[in-house]
Amino acid sequence: MPAYATNMRLKFPILALILEIITIILFAMFVVYEDGKPAHHATLDNSTHEELLPMNLYPMFQDVHVMIFIGFGFLMTFLKRYGFSSVGVNLLLAAFGLQWGLLMQGFWHMDNGKIKVSVEKMINADFSTATVLISFGAVLGKTSPVQLLIMTILEITIFSINEHIVVQILGANDVGASMIIHAFGAYFGLAVARMLYRPALRNGHENDGSVYHSDLFAMIGTVYLWMFWPSFNSAIAEPGLTQLKAVVNTYFSLAACVLSAYAISSLVEHKGKLDMVHIQNATLAGGVAVGTCADMDIEPFGAMLIGLLAGIISTVGFKYLTPILASNLGIQDTCGVHNLHGMPGILGGLAGIVAVALGKKEGGTATMQAAALASSLGFALVGGAITGLIMKLPFWGQPPDQNCFDDSIYWEVPEEEDENEESLAHGDHSKNKAEV
Amino acid sequence: MPAYATNMRLKFPILALILEIITIILFAMFVVYEDGKPAHHATLDNSTHEELLPMNLYPMFQDVHVMIFIGFGFLMTFLKRYGFSSVGVNLLLAAFGLQWGLLMQGFWHMDNGKIKVSVEKMINADFSTATVLISFGAVLGKTSPVQLLIMTILEITIFSINEHIVVQILGANDVGASMIIHAFGAYFGLAVARMLYRPALRNGHENDGSVYHSDLFAMIGTVYLWMFWPSFNSAIAEPGLTQLKAVVNTYFSLAACVLSAYAISSLVEHKGKLDMVHIQNATLAGGVAVGTCADMDIEPFGAMLIGLLAGIISTVGFKYLTPILASNLGIQDTCGVHNLHGMPGILGGLAGIVAVALGKKEGGTATMQAAALASSLGFALVGGAITGLIMKLPFWGQPPDQNCFDDSIYWEVPEEEDENEESLAHGDHSKNKAEV
Amino acid sequence: MPAYATNMRLKFPILALILEIITIILFAMFVVYEDGKPAHHATLDNSTHEELLPMNLYPMFQDVHVMIFIGFGFLMTFLKRYGFSSVGVNLLLAAFGLQWGLLMQGFWHMDNGKIKVSVEKMINADFSTATVLISFGAVLGKTSPVQLLIMTILEITIFSINEHIVVQILGANDVGASMIIHAFGAYFGLAVARMLYRPALRNGHENDGSVYHSDLFAMIGTVYLWMFWPSFNSAIAEPGLTQLKAVVNTYFSLAACVLSAYAISSLVEHKGKLDMVHIQNATLAGGVAVGTCADMDIEPFGAMLIGLLAGIISTVGFKYLTPILASNLGIQDTCGVHNLHGMPGILGGLAGIVAVALGKKEGGTATMQAAALASSLGFALVGGAITGLIMKLPFWGQPPDQNCFDDSIYWEVPEEEDENEESLAHGDHSKNKAEV
Lengths: 436, 436, 436
Description:
The structure is a homotrimer. Chain A is mainly alpha-helical.
């Protein structure tokens, strides 16, 4: 029995149960319900919130929740034989990550030694898992569930430190988290991917691609992310007109981004055709890039310019940059998170510097915005590299090259009807079935 | 022409139209709009609600609505050739059931001889259909639409009686309906399944299984149920901090449940692999099990312990108990509702007894909680057995054994592209196409 | 290289980018954030709204947003080889259309020379795209992205003129837009389809049909439209009890419609089977038909009667009328929008005339309601015919007959696994792969 099989059999369930039990103990010690009594509670956003009814943000929370579990989960189902892992492991990591994130973020903002769970804290807990899910995209198909649980713990812990520095210490603006979630998650994941470089996959892998219906499943993820991104960027904005502004900016940035992503996809592809990879991803870059500025007075047309540019950068990145990263830098970025979250996240950070410099937001300085971007990238690259080294340790059950991008190494996969019927006639599916 | 074909041709449309016309007549007699004037209106929850704006609960309603129509509907699409029936008949039963449920529940709470429709009544109407959809899971693939419409009428009527006894007479707590919806729906369905036992399917059926993409469709259902379960458990809770508590408890119970479901699935499966059946279902058991206690002061860690336990029980049930029920008791539970709704529902009821005994909720006594659980199980088993006997009558067009789990008996099913192309070469698909 | 390939290569990206840049310039000149200061702002609904918190309608907006992007997009994925275009071009047209719609609608209601973007304006912008997406259904599979962008500009412009006439000048009621969106969009699209008549497709096309899983993807669209239609019909109703009334009427109309659609489908089909085309579409006709009356005192049973009738008309239309339109009138209506939006939209308009005549709504007269219906149909037919003629111009890259209903003309389509494996044995897929 190969090592990675043994690993799943024993290491995965033991690790999962131990982590959950530790988490429950920490919850028993530290976590209580929100009681509605005023207290200093800070958030990703550094604005002072007026007193709110406890359930006011709940619809926003549910939109974010859908993005995390349906959006990220299905976006990654584009691979032909990795859909179970995409949506299933996404669920696993996010379910654990939100518990861990609530603790890690909560420890910075205790109230009489307790973390009081409000809807806003649940939104922030969901947000913290987004970093992991972005990084997951970079290493999709090449990592075991055990490795990914390790990454979840480390990444969310490091994220919470950087978030605290950016928001509380630097006092920077990042309401839609272009820097502290998107750029952070992307470069963290890319650093991990670099550490886990697989020379044998230099020329691709037969399962590293889509089939017709897997691309349609992925569009479920894309469209949900696209629709609810205004909620992501505005959920923790100051209530009222500022929150509306964050919604409006994101709505129009995304709309403009669709046009540029489609135009550039057609322009760079063979015979002017559209490429599903671009449509699934680059149409979302406008949501990422407008994040930092979402609650600033950039006006709708300013948001649209950011979206237009993000769609162009992202599509060009998929076409020309991703192959270079893989061949020259040894960074095999399965989902192209560099193009969807990395570069648009940096664009968002830069736009934020400019917007603050131009006085589009009260509070914060351009210097602090720049420091926030640098901090996010620094923590991501260093944290990701260290995490990648830890994940490379030989006992986490990393899948062998030939089993990458294949659910059947970690899942019971049903045999296809046609396969059954054809198996008598010709046996060329047998290598797929004999996995593990 | 076989009997079940004749049945669909005449009996189904006639029954559907007659039921709808009777329903419209009853609506004309009894149902009016909510007018905002105060009146005694009781709900699943026995707490007194403060006066609300009429649309306040609407986002919660829509979350529940998505659970009923997308969640339950797609969860059952896991079968390889039964997706049309799963999502289509789910829509049919729920669309009829919500009308019938509004009447059956409303008759207990008339206001000047009228049922006034509010958003809360719509939530409760949707809830009442959930019992039917749970039972549908137990008999999925083995019943005709006509049989299922009969089941819908009877089950919702019996549900409404038990609900009235539990909430109004016993004064028991069951805000998330672990007992009156989940345990009730599961054991009702199991009793029906027992009555409809098919010895010929003892050794399985070739269509009683999934294919790769049908499992992904099912995950759409799973994830939507998982995400919106906090709304299910809190929709009719007392507004404000109590409702927040129900959200928080469910959120964390579900998160903990994911970890234990994954861990146990890997532990009990061949070579440590994960089983999609477990992931699709057992990850939701935490939502079921925390239902009764959702609005009680069990603290987040208490909710997590319930979720952890529910995930374990549910996964173990799928692995070991379902086969025993089928082989020893003659209960062929297609979707394993005993594991997702039955045992976790009882766990929820028991947790409620303990929590009330420990003083975690004002109002109610442990004895009344226990009586509520017993009442729900009693009505379910007796009501389900009688309903099953009625459904067994020979003129409802029950499908023959060989046509079970196959859409083509009730639906025009498109011929697959490959089939067309291959049909010249070899004719072994012909039996599928010649159905009915 | 054929003309339509050249077209995509150059014309599509240039057109898309130019349109977006023009739109951004117009936004820079005219569009600002809502500032909360009172101003005259009119809507599809002519009622006077009380002052609202700026984000109150946001959950309603998101429901409508899901209908536009998931609902319409996935509803059209039923075609076996046209899913990328269905959901992808739907995203493109709606993303551009919402920007254009905001301008076209906003120009009628400027405030100091500016269009102030509120959530209500975003809902109306989304609404305006619905007309295009309905018309898209009539010409699905037979038009190029360039043609469809042209249609988007023209149709939304004409829609905005008719909307202004109906709501502001005639003072007619159409809260759920049976007339100004559904009937308008359908007959506009049918007029376009007539202009683009393809005699060579008289006997069908091998790709103009579904496969099993494409029908399931389409059900995602159906169920989302069905669930959120109460939001569509009530989003811009007067807040409070009137909005609740619109929700309740739509909820029950849709429920009744499901029963009649299923019944009639079974009644008219071979051996009493259900037809997925009917279920995917006719179950929604109740939402269309109750639109105009949604906020009127028609009582729940009145709404149900409208829904019941709409389900019958729609199903019968699919079965008997669509073939006649195609063979006798040269109108090839791919998705059957005449049955889902056309006839039910007219039914809605007629029901509105009757309801206003019966005094079920304060404000408006039956004459004005009739004039509104006539205006909507007139603008649709004339506008659609002119638009169709423009779309027929030879330089928009309309696809040749044999490439209709096939994504591979505009998209990079992954080669299927089976195809690869079987290609050695027999080469009969080669014609599909060599497209364009």
